[in-house]
Amino acid sequence: MSDQYKSMWESLGLALESHDALLNVLGNFYQNIYLSQKNRPQGMGYFDFVMSEVHGLRIKELLDEKAQGRKIIGSYCVFVPEEIVLAANATLVGLCSGADFAMEEVERFLPRNTCALIKSSFGFKLGKVCPYLESADMIVGENTCDGKKKAYETLSGLVNNLYVMDLPQVKSTQGRELLKAEYHRFKSSVEQLTGKPITVESLKQGIQTVNNKRNAIYRFSQLRKANPTPISGLDALLANQVFFYDNPQRFTESVHKICDELETRISQKQGVFPENTPRILLSGCPMAVPNWKLPWIIETSGAVIVGEESCVGERGTRNLTDDSGNTVDELINAIVDRYFKVDCAIFTPNPDRLNHIQEMVDTYKANGVIQYSLQFCQPYQMEAIPFEKALKEKQIPTLRLETDYAMEDVGQLKTRVEAFIEQIK
Ligand code: BJ8
Question: What value does the mean pLDDT take over residues 84-93?
Answer without folding.
Answer: 98
